[in-house]
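User: Can you help me understand a structure? I only have the sequence.
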Amino acid sequence: MTIIDGKKISTDIQDEIAIEVKAIAEAKGKIPHLAAVLVGNDGASETYVAAKVKACERVGFKSTLVRMPTITKESELLFKLKELNNDEDIDGYIVQSPLPKHIDEYKIIEAIAPEKDVDGFHPQSVGRMALNLPTYLPATPFGIVQLLERYKIETSGKHCVVLGRSHIVGSPMSILMARNAAPGNCTVTLCHSRTLNLKEFTLKADILIVALGKTEFVTADMVKDGVVVIDVGITRVPSTETKSGFKLLGDVKYDEVAAKASFITPVPGGVGPMTIASLLLNTLKASRREVYKTNYEL
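Assistant: Let's start by predicting it. Here is the structure, written out as tokens:
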């Protein structure tokens, strides 16, 4: 059994990006610039955005943090996005979720210029992904693809079962694993809360990708020997075993499932670290204008 070390792969990718950015700087080229919009003061969002800013500093990117209060009107946020869309120095930006309840998340996603949509959530990005055209992939699925590729895990002809159908992980993951590419070329089954006889599907999986948000949902009796397990879930639970008083658990009961797996991602340290690496890769791609050769007009 091989433990897939997402922390190491994320560090490797960031080191590779840093080398490229250094070469750009030495050639007097334009340094990639990532912006993040944070509305309100959600604790988890603060942590995520701080990590993204730190990662930008590590690889040599320019970064901008736009803070807006919780009471920000939807129209005010839309106006700010228009400014970012028109700022030629900013290559890509993200709007950190969750947003305050009075703001329509989908309206905000659609307001982001597709060529700057480094989160990969804009309908145009999703459509291009479905057509296997150059685009920005959503960070978590992109990170999983990177893990499969760098660990040389064979996917062609395999049966991949995806648990969860969110637009952030499950649905795009099912598209990526079925596409005619490497990694890809899987026969994909997408399972969700309405799936009947779920265990029948998971037992047939050569590759099992779990993104349910249900702590330790997948147990050893649900998987076959030699399965590749990608655990996307991460939930903070109370614990008397740690100084902090809590620990992080995934959607897979790690110890018992790991005994049957050929490859498995731990929680933490598996998929999680890859999201920021993927965001940086998308921003680097945006700075090269690899996806959109001309400006997109809203």
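Now, to help you interpret it: Residues 294-298 have pLDDT under 50 and may be disordered. The chain has two domains: 27-113, 139-272. Let me know which part you'd like to focus on.
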